[in-house]
């Protein structure tokens, strides 16, 4: 099973494009392709979960509250202290130890 990603509407498309160019085998759906413009945060999280995708977003202001609510409801996440920092694109990714 491969990891699949979903870009939130606020994520710059250049990030999706760069990931696809660097590793074409990664399944990374853009917000445009998934028609997410104007969709509520909670619905975006629901869609990503139902499609087995990890949501990638820059939205700390509102998305975190919905994400925390999902965690409290019993949803699981991978967390590890290992992190990759990209100065070029201004984001970070946490990897499970198995990676």
Provide structural commentary.
The chain is built from three helices and five strands; from the N terminus they run E-H-E-H-E-H-E-E. The chain has helices spanning 13-22, 41-50, 63-72, and strands at residues 4-7, 27-29, 53-56, 83-86, 91-94. It has one domain (4-94). The strands form two sheets. The chain has a three-stranded parallel sheet with strand order 2-1-3, with helices on both faces. It has a two-stranded antiparallel sheet with strand order 4-5. It has 99 residues and is of the alpha/beta class. Helices cover 30% and strands 19% of the residues. Strand 4 and strand 5 form a beta hairpin. The two termini are 14 Å apart.
Short description:
By secondary structure, the chain is an alpha/beta fold. The chain contains three helices and five strands. It has one domain (4-94).
The H/E string reads EHEHEHEE
> How many strands?
5
Q: How many DSSP helices? A: 3
Largest sheet: 3 strands, parallel
Q: Strand fraction band?
A: 15-25%
Arithmetic mean of pLDDT? 75
Radius of gyration: 13 Å
Q: What is the first-to-last residue Cα distance?
A: 14 Å
**Strand adjacency order, main sheet:** 2-1-3
Q: Could you say how many structural domains there are in total? A: 1
Shape: globular
Question: What ranges have pLDDT less than 50 throughout 5 or more consecutive residues?
Answer: 75-99
- Work out the helicity level: 25-40%
Structural category: alpha/beta
């Amino acid at each position: 099973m491969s990891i699949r990603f979903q870009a939130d509407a606020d994520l710059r498309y250049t990030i999706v494009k760069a990931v696809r160019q660097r590793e074409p085998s990664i399944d990374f759906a853009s917000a445009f392709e998934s028609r997410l413009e104007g969709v509520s945060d909670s619905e975006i999280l629901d869609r990503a979960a139902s499609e087995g995708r990890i949501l990638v977003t820059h939205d700390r202001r509102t998305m975190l509250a919905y994400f925390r609510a999902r965690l409290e409801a019993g949803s699981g996440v991978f967390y590890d202290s290992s992190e990759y920092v990209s100065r070029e694109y201004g984001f970070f990714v946490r990897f499970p130890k198995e990676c």
